[in-house]
Design a protein that fits this description.
single chain; mainly alpha; 2 domains; two-stranded antiparallel sheet; elongated
């Protein structure tokens, strides 16, 4: 991948050292004039064209984005173009968008298979810019980073004053008996102290949502629990393990207290429809299991 390693150090007319020019970025512009440092073939500043490209991607202006990418690529600033496009993927586009892989592939073609400023390389640049401009634009990651950083500063200042912060992280103090108690399973020291091993993990930590497990996955999960030779799950626990989390209450409130739902009769039992494992003892119902029995 292009990472700027092809940039060469040159000296400007005033004797100052320039490190941002590549061999391809020198020469004449479209008007037959010797290009100034950081000048494109069209006579523009590469910094301005690069900024234009980013704003065009944010505004989903396909034509402007395509031109800006073409101008940078043909002018010998492909390293700058691909560096910026890869930044836009995480700064200006929606998380999870497949355009990230698309841009990476176009960069590979333009810089490893072909010449980045030649016809094929320029096509790759245009394709990548169009893909970015057509993707879902959002600065969600940048906004989240700025917000979380501001809250971190406020929390620190509040603690120094001995006060409660006016704004806090969405997890608060993240306590074992709080809203996010499900995270304190056997993988954590606090969870281990509370005996939250395999039983707790299956009925709290491993739950998914809001759609929940599909029919096949739920069947496998249920049978794996039924056939467990160390732990005997009651029907309420089996149902809870495969039930989708509530989209309006995805953490299900506090996980403190009972890790075994009350069935109403005070007994732990298996459904009549569940297979007999043939094991009448040997640790069934001890509720412990091993951390090796489950994964995060």
């Amino acid at each position: 991948m292009a990472d700027g390693d092809d940039r060469q150090a040159t000296f400007g007319s005033d004797g100052s050292l320039e490190t941002d020019r590549t061999p391809d970025a020198t020469g004449e512009n479209d008007f037959g004039e010797e290009k100034e440092p950081n000048e494109t073939d069209g006579g523009y500043s590469r910094y301005v064209v690069s900024s234009l490209l980013q704003k065009a991607v944010r505004r989903s202006d396909e034509e402007i984005a395509a031109w800006a990418a073409w101008e940078l690529a043909r002018s010998g600033y492909a390293w700058n173009l691909w560096d910026r496009l890869n930044l836009y993927v995480v700064e200006d586009l929606r998380a999870g968008d497949e355009v990230a892989l698309t841009i990476e592939r176009y960069e590979e073609l333009a810089t490893e298979r072909w010449e980045p400023d030649a016809w094929k390389g320029r096509l790759c640049a245009i394709h990548a810019a169009l893909a970015a401009a057509r993707a879902h634009s959002t600065r969600e990651a940048s906004n989240a980073d700025a917000y979380f950083g501001a809250v971190a500063d406020l929390r620190a200042q509040a603690r120094a004053r001995g006060e409660e912060p006016a704004h806090d992280f969405p997890v608060g103090d993240l306590e074992p008996d709080g809203e996010f108690g499900a995270v304190f399973d056997g993988h954590t020291g606090e969870g281990s102290k509370r005996g939250r091993d395999t039983r707790f993990f299956k009925t709290h930590g491993a739950r998914v949502g809001p759609e929940g497990e599909d029919e096949q996955s739920a069947r496998w999960q249920r049978l794996a629990m039924v056939l467990d030779e160390e732990i005997e799950y009651d029907e309420a626990e089996l149902a809870r393990a495969v039930a989708p989390v509530d989209p309006d209450d995805s953490w299900g409130g506090s996980a403190s207290g009972d890790t075994e739902p009350d069935t109403g009769d005070g007994e732990t039992h298996r459904s009549d429809a569940e297979p007999d494992t043939g094991d009448e003892g040997g640790g069934a119902g001890d509720g412990t299991g091993s951390l090796s029995d489950f994964a995060e």
